[in-house]
Amino acid sequence: MSFIETSKNEIYLELITKELYNKGNKYLFNDWKISVLQKKVLFAVAIKSIFPILYIIYILYNGVVSFMKIVGSKSVNISQGTYFLATDNFSPTLNDKIIRNTQDAVWILNANVQADNYRITSNKYYSVYELTSIKDLIKVCTNSFFVLFDVYRKLGSYYILFTLNSFKWLLYKSAVDKIPYDSTIYFLDHKDRWALLEDKLKVKNKILIQHGIEITSNYHKSFLSVNGSGYCFNMPYKFSTVTKVLAFSETDFKSLCLSILSNVPAKEIIGFGFALDEISHERFSVLIIGEVALYSFKEKEIIERLQNSQIDIYLKNHPKNDSSFYKRLQQSLSFNLIEGRFFPNVDLVISYESTLASEYSSAGIEVVYHTRESIEDIVEKINLIRRSASKLNQ
Fold first, then answer.
1. SS3 313
2. Quick check: pTM over 0.85?
3. Nearest 10 degrees: CA dihedral of 219, 221, 226, 229?
4. N or C: which end of the chain has fewer CB within 10 A?
5. Helices (H) and strands (E) in the chain, counts
């Protein structure tokens, strides 16, 4: 298994996202506009001549840092057991879900995942550095250099920044490759580079914990239909070795089988395990579930339309996204930005197809999807609900 294999899903997701979502949204694709820049001669020269030098420095720096951490860590010989693969950072809500479903599993923490930031009820965990030897590290650095040439040769300079993910991926792979075959692993990843790593591991029992909704109302010619409930991605690379899936519902399990699985594993329906937090309010309340990278322009318009309407507006951003845009927006618009493990018990939720929206729906809160209805229709629906509630209270 080579790192470049992980590019299949990454490239597919990038192309789909660019085709489906508004390219004019200045908060989308604002980090690396390579497709535009590479048309400029100076940039093309720089990316082909300067980047390899910077990349080598980057790998050497990571190699030195990792060397020091390996030397300062106690080496561990991993034995047969049950493990949770913490490949990346995740939200407190996901932390709760992991605890409920993995019991006393030993966590294997990636380089950027710190045990102090999470609740690990078993209190058992290994860092990637405890499972990696100096010999392994030399191999990781060497293979990282080869990744650069592989990407240049097979994908071209447009995807050159993709190589920056290679070192951490190869380092974690060198650690989890040591898990004995008769073990059991739990993981959250659906379709990114970590999913491919987990699928290729030579481990007997592999349990995928669903952490996100795969169903969307958006349509693309490459999408698959999910029993009339919507559509899902048809990923180029799909799991083939997962033995069990912990899914939110039967429909969610079906969508996972269509989107990211090439086999049909055993299933367990775990629901959402979701609880609401009471808030003190007398007015009608609305929660907007935010996704700044894709829907900031639409969310801003919704908030604008609800201003001066005697409505308490709450907004909760996706836990992995930066909230600076919303904080700036608060300077001109009135709404409550909420963060962390807090889920207000509101009268209505406005969202895209998100896991949190499904969790609210499971708790009996009505959800309106701005991806399915116009803003005009959403505002009218809010007014109808308020009028109905007013008549009941008379």
1. strand
2. no
3. 20
4. C
5. 12, 14
